[in-house]
Amino acid sequence: MRRGLEAVVFTVLVYVATVALQIYQPVTGGYFNLGESMIYLAALTSSPIVAAVAGGVGASLADLTTGYAIFAPATFVIKFAEGYLAGVLVGLFRRTRQKAVAAASVGAVYALGLYYGVSYWAGRVVFGPSSWLWFSLSSIEAFIPWYGWLLVTVLLGAVVVYGVTKYIVKSLEPLALLIAGSLMVTGYFLYEYFVSNPLTGRPPINALYEVPVNIGQAVSGVIISLPVAVWLYRAGFVKQK
């Protein structure tokens, strides 16, 4: 019952935010709007399915009632998927916090460090000759064993873990929303390129022109939704998940 009420409320909010500001894009027939802000707010304060339903239904209704019906089917699928992914990622990042992010980061460092180190820099290595301004360096030859690069990657991994857990982990919610936003950007590009532009007589490649617009739409959604969500939590209207 509670989730159903939240879905209705957020669907209305998505609809209102989408129709309140519409900036027409003549190259694709689409428009810039602020609907992402309420989809992301639902993802931050409710459940993935609520964000999905609100995004899909609210945004597609906005298309149908404001002259953009050609986008309505795609909007339902794209915004539904965007809202669901945003909600899932927000919950995932909140639950796992430092451990998962640190593990992923250090894993990437280890993988890249070992691959490039062992593949290109292990064994006999020659540095130089080189010059910079008035300094000149002759070539230097050294032998670096493979386990030397293993040590380097371990040290780099430790530095990355410290930096991620201390400075970056608190900013993961914007990252979750932007990842979901990239799904929206990609979805509309594909739909405009293969469906809506050909149907309306526009060159398919015009879909590229709306990519930065949709990126701006996602970024605007993050900028608006985050402070609103923080206020709702601090005011006690929403319980911390």
Automatic annotation (TrEMBL):
Entry GO terms, CC: membrane
Membrane in keyword set: yes
Secretion signal, residue range per the UniProt entry: none
Presence of keyword Transmembrane helix: yes
Transmembrane region(s): 6-27, 39-62, 68-93, 100-123, 143-163, 175-195, 215-233
A Pfam cross-reference name: ECF-ribofla_trS
Database matches in InterPro entries: ECF_substrate-spec-like
Keywords: Membrane, Transmembrane, Transmembrane helix
Domain of life according to the entry: Archaea
Protein name: ECF transporter S component
Species assigned in the record: Thermogladius calderae (strain DSM 22663 / VKM B-2946 / 1633)
Lineage of source species: Archaea, Thermoproteota, Thermoprotei, Desulfurococcales, Desulfurococcaceae
